[in-house]
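Saturday, quiet lab. Running sequence design on the structure tokens for the scaffold JK sent over.
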């Protein structure tokens, strides 16, 4: 599996698994929750935690407590989050890393497994190309989840993270089957 799963085991929901996707940000953190039932992904909830301006420590606390409320309300089994990448501004990357830490801590205290994916992995999983634009991600998320309208950018990104994890998860579960089928053909 491309993402890294922690050693914390996920809860069982029968054939369904509920995944919380997070697009971290120090001012806006997107979240999206999907439920996988077999091959079908269903959108349970999505939105943005707008923690605004102000002192970074206060914003990180708001990310943590906001995600705690979402976790309590929706009871996800697993979580997936986008990794940090440095484009131009190192200070922004450090703040993003701290926002990721607050988000990961919010799920870790609830014993939820955590997977991490690069922006390129997420875009490639959902759109088919790793350099997809934000509007392309929004469009594909809307289409895949059969939503009436495209979610806000950060929420769409978070749903894409959850979908990426779902796809990687399904592939990992099918890997033994695929391996067995390959050896049977020989």
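Result came back. Writing it out in full:
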């Amino acid at each position: 599996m491309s993402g890294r799963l922690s050693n914390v085991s996920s809860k069982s929901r029968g054939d369904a698994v509920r995944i919380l996707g997070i697009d971290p940000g120090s001012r806006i953190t997107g979240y999206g929750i999907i439920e996988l039932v077999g091959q079908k992904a269903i959108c349970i909830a999505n939105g943005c935690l707008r923690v605004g301006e102000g002192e970074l420590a206060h914003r990180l606390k708001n990310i943590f407590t906001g995600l705690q409320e979402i976790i309590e309300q929706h009871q996800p089994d697993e979580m997936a989050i986008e990794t940090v990448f440095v484009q131009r501004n190192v200070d922004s990357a450090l703040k993003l890393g701290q926002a990721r830490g607050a988000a990961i801590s919010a799920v870790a205290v609830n014993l939820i497994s955590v997977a991490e994916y690069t922006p390129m992995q997420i875009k490639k999983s959902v759109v088919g190309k790793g350099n997809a634009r934000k509007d392309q991600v929004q469009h594909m998320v809307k289409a895949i989840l059969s939503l009436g309208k495209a979610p806000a950018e950060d929420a769409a990104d978070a749903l894409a993270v959850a979908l990426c994890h779902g796809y990687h998860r399904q592939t990992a579960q099918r890997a033994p089957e695929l391996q067995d089928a390959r050896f049977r053909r020989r």
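Notes for JK: Residues 1-10 have pLDDT under 50 and may be disordered. The beta strands are 16-23, 28-37, 40-50, 78-82, 113-117. Ask whether to fix the surface positions before the next round.
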